[in-house]
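Repro:
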Amino acid sequence: MPVQQHSDPFEDRVAAELRAAGGTFDADLTSLTSAGLTRGRRLRLRRRAAIAGGAASLALVGVGGTLLLPGGGADAEQATVGTSATASASPSVPPVSAQEMIGTLKELLGYGKFSQESSRGTADQLGPFATLVWDDGDGASLVSLGLDRVEPGSDQARQWTECPDKAITPHDRCTSNRLDDGSVLTILQGYEYPDKREPTKRWVADLVTPRGQHVSVSEWNSAAEKGGSITRPEPPLDAAELKKLVTAPAWLKAIDAIPAEPDPTAAPTETFTPVTDIRKTLVDLLPDGAEPVARGGDASGWGYVVVDDGKGRSMVEINVQPDMGDLLGEGLFEGAEQVGDGTMLIERRDSGDKDVPGAVRWTVDTVRINGLRISVSAMNAAGPHDAPSRAKPALTMEQLREIALSDKWAPTRQQLHGS
């Protein structure tokens, strides 16, 4: 983004997560494989696209998106948001203008020079946000803030308050803590590009209150989110200062002024098999000699293990998704073979979705007659961002087929629908 352009934090998160997941919209098998296989690590995109607005956001709704549950790293302290009444606009709360949004942000930052200001008020259909370039005397930094609502206790609220898995989204530090008022604050100190193709750092703070008020602040060590020169070693606000900014009462009042949705009736939320079950089943189906050395995943039906057979580490990913029969009419399954009781299966070989030199990924993707999709892949590296540790994945294509077609996945559909 050129320096003179401005950044909406929610649109930025959508774009950054799509880059982190390596997704594209090209209709080639590699990108289609990536889009399908990584649905679990991209489930959040559809929520974030909904609040970002614009044609690009609408295009992202069907793709699915990225921040993940932690793999148990020492730097990830997790908390969850409980159920409560959803925040909604009150007739007694006056709207907050775009000028007031940017003015409040400048007042809270407090000093220094401000430039390249842009903002939206609470009445804007795309939602309130404010962004500017701030020079505190130690170098210019892009700072963006956005406000919205989430359903308390929902999967969406949970996803905003979880640290990403380092194996998928490398970062320096992430904490998620419950505050005294029951809100959950997550602070992620990472990079604009998780693979560090550019040295731009991006630090993000997300606050979700028990009423579903959501405040998100992003800051960079550059005057632009990408493509700009590095102006300072780190973004200007440390974790304590980010906390102070994101928890300012003015933002919660502004969220209360956002007009209520015209139709508050939400569609039923998909529920998925607990991630521990998916990972356990995957481990149980691994071939002899493939020793699990790490694992991770989330509650969306996605999981992974890293195995070592003595010849180098290899990541094995799996997605378990119900009601995916409509995929059979798309290019993703063009040329698939029919196996067993009508299950459609297709094999793919590509270089992954992170543009890592020498990367090899093998995938077996299946859709059963009841719509249950099992997609399994193996890489010749310990993670999608890692350099290859071996010439080929630890699992053969035949072994991946056996995992995808196993009868052990059969109960998963009933569990997914609670029947």
